[in-house]
């Protein structure tokens, strides 16, 4: 299979061909793994339903969700970011020749094409959690960093992680501030209740003794008392602070009405569904991207550049080094993930108790969790390549990774048609385990297609189109 699928055998030494094969293997693994959690968005396994599982931790569904979250959630997108960053480094470093444009110009052209494709995925196929658009935006921002030495790239990547973690703490600090304001309002309400009772007693109001008529008369007196009326009413600011906290607590908990509305909207025809999804796409590709996403993906891409610079993807280090890195980083990432999930469950069950007991948010270490697990997975795969173990599986990953853009679109299109209202409309109808069965079916389609396509062609169809657009010349794709 190696002759047909890979740029070089899995035992390749530290050559450019071996490096490209390694990147293809890691990309293919990450892309197939990404589908394990992206299927949640397509299939209707929403954050609301996950909140229900986390709040009922004794159920078996919780254990399955926890396992998948620890192993896959966020890690595969970060792993794709590592490979994307390494690809930026390779492309920008290319020199102009008789048949290629300058690497920097090619890189910018490529990102512009990807931005357009990402908008198509979000606004036409209606997938709000697309990776192409944010990767392309961040890719444009980072291309100048390829001139930095690997050490500096590591430093900047860690700084991006720190900013990402700082943002998480900042949002949590806002919640803490809202909770403190809420407590002050509750104290005021308690004092007002006591004052009201004291005034009632002073006016001769006795709930146990007075008749209904007497109560009504005394109530009218209290209402007419301008001082009492002023003191017993929250100001608009105080009422807003109370409502804000209560709304925040409600938003954290499971809400069956939101689930029902989401399922109904996602099973509608294309027009109604477009108006429903449009806001999610706009949020993800604007506010979220520029407040959180840019730091998350920049950290992964810069780390990918740094790892390429030190020879990580060239298999430069010993097998034992890669194995130790894999075990250490995966263990660290898994521990952080377990903390995140455990505290997230507590947050959902009783956010007031959580915010009183924890100085940091449940997702404080999320940036480092993703980076650690992604690096660990990459190290594990390279360790297997160094040993020439499971070469047939590595070749499959390489085939999928070599056609990453095509396979990404295959995933999105199949899943959208399967689950969305403009397709078969199975959104929200599958149990969690059934969604993973769907993942296996889609992955099988991609693997078979990739293997057979690369027997006759050099690259995937979308990769070939993108190459022609970037270099502005038509080339043959047949072997």
What does this structure look like?
The protein has 479 residues and is an all-alpha fold. The chain contains 20 helices and no strands. The longest helix has 53 residues. It folds into two domains: 383 residues, no CATH class; 72 residues, no CATH class. It starts with a helix and ends in an 8-residue tail after the last helix. The chain is elongated, with a radius of gyration of 28 Å. Helix 5 packs across helix 16.
Short description:
The chain has 479 residues and is mostly helical.
Secondary structure elements and pairings:
Elements: H1 2-5, H2 16-43, H3 47-55, H4 60-71, H5 75-92, H6 103-123, H7 132-142, H8 150-202, H9 212-224, H10 226-231, H11 236-252, H12 256-266, H13 270-309, H14 319-349, H15 351-357, H16 366-387, H17 391-402, H18 404-419, H19 432-453, H20 461-471
| Rg estimate, integer Å | 28 Å
The total of helices stands at 20
Summarize the amount of helix as a percent range: over 70%
The profile of the biggest β sheet is:
none
List the defining traits of the structure above.
479 residues; mainly alpha; 2 domains; 20 helices; elongated; disordered N terminus
């Amino acid at each position: 299979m190696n002759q047909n699928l890979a740029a070089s055998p899995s035992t390749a030494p530290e050559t450019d061909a071996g490096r490209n094969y390694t990147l293809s293997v890691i990309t293919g693994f990450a892309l197939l793994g990404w589908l394990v959690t992206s299927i949640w968005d397509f299939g209707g396994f929403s954050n609301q339903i996950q909140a229900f599982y986390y709040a009922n931790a004794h159920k078996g569904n919780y254990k399955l969700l926890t396992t998948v979250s620890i192993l896959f959630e966020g890690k595969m997108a970060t792993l794709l970011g590592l490979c994307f960053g390494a690809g930026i480094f390779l492309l920008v470093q290319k020199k102009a020749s008789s048949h290629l444009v300058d690497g920097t110009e090619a890189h910018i052209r490529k990102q512009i094409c990807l931005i357009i494709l990402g908008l198509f995925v979000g606004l036409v196929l209606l997938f709000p959690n697309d990776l192409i658009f944010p990767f392309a935006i961040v890719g444009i921002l980072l291309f100048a960093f390829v001139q930095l030495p690997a050490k500096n790239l590591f430093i900047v990547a860690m700084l991006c992680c720190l900013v990402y973690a700082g943002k998480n703490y900042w949002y949590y600090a806002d919640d803490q501030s809202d909770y403190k304001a809420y407590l002050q309002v509750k104290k005021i309400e308690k004092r007002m209740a006591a004052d009201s009772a004291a005034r009632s007693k002073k006016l001769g109001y006795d709930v146990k003794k007075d008749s209904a008529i007497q109560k009504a008369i005394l109530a009218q007196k209290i209402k007419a008392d301008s001082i009492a009326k002023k003191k017993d009413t929250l100001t608009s600011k105080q009422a807003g602070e109370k409502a804000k906290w209560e709304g925040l607590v409600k938003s954290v908990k499971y809400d069956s009405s939101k689930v029902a509305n989401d399922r109904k909207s996602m099973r509608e025809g294309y027009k109604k569904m477009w108006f429903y999804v449009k806001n999610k796409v706009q949020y993800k590709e604007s506010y979220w991207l520029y407040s959180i996403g840019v730091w998350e993906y920049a950290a992964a891409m810069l780390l990918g550049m740094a790892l390429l610079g030190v020879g990580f993807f060239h298999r430069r280090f010993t097998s034992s080094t890669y194995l130790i890195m894999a075990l250490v980083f995966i263990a660290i990432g898994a521990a952080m993930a377990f903390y995140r999930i455990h505290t997230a469950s507590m947050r959902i069950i009783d956010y007031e108790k959580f915010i009183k007991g924890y100085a940091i948010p449940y997702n404080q270490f999320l940036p480092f969790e993703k980076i650690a697990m992604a690096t660990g997975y990459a190290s594990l795969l390279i360790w297997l390549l160094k040993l020439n173990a499971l070469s047939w599986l590595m070749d499959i990953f390489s085939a999928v990774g070599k056609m990453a853009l095509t396979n990404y679109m295959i995933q999105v299109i199949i899943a959208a048609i399967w689950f969305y209202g403009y397709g078969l409309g199975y959104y929200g109808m599958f149990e969690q385990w059934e969604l993973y069965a769907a993942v296996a079916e889609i992955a099988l389609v991609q693997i078979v297609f990739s293997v057979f396509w690369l027997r006759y062609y050099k690259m995937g169809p979308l990769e070939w189109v993108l190459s022609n657009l970037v270099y502005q010349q038509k080339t043959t794709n047949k072997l």
